[in-house]
Specification:
30% of the residues lie in helices and 19% in strands. It is an alpha/beta fold.
Amino acid sequence: MDESALTRRRLLELAGIGLGAAAFTACTARIAPAEMTPPAPAAPPVPAGPTATTPPAPAVPLTVRTSSGSFVSAYRPGIASHWSLAAPELPPGGTQPELPLAVFLHGLNGSHTVLLEDLAAQEALQQHLDAGGTPFAIAAVDGGNTWWHPRADGSDTQSMLVREFVPFLGSQGCDLGRIGLFGLSMGGFGSLLLASQGRLPGVRAVAAMSPAVWDHYDPRQESALDGPADFAAHDVFALRPRLAALPKRVDCGTGDELASTVRAYRSGLPGEVEGEFRPGGHDYSYWRSVLPDVLSFLGYNLA
């Protein structure tokens, strides 16, 4: 059987392996001696900076805290969209700096819970901080099975991200001038699409794990696309030149049936592309294994 045909047929079901509060609820002086008294020798200059007897104070350890909530989006009427946020708790006192933000997009049949439950991303973020990495926040929101773009049924989860969820995160102390995007499978496609379309001006990096991408329209993709015109409007292969100046990372398991399509997508990306093909499949075991490297990549580029 032709390998590309196998990839097309398996694309949607593979993307589905990523299965897993209401407005937003849930950022001296001395006297001079007499002339007969010899002047005291001048004191040696005090060296700048710490000395052996005055070590610098250790950095305050940062602890990741999580929160969650829900809202009803204008772009998903009548549906409660739940969200999760994990962020380092900054030391009290003084002006609290805004934290860079990385937004996670889940896969087909997934939800916001994928980030903190299936991937345990808060643990990976804590390890990143303990190793001295750049502090930043990570967040996810429910996107349904919409493939993170406008659909014929009137839903538009990409606009929900851009116009509602990300601005809300800005009100929570996140720096909207330093945004990263990352996702897996369907969410990998959504992250690459959003980064390519440039609707979030603060995006500084994008990372996709096993992105569900394809280079031509296939009628069997009806759950992902609403026809040839919809494919053409959201063709991530054609949009690759727009990622030329953006730091990007693409990873995929060598045992993933999407690997050949992901290789084709990567090969046409302009500029340097981080990430690799390592042993693994289209599953959470593989995605958890690569997540620490993904967070390191995002932290470096959001610093």
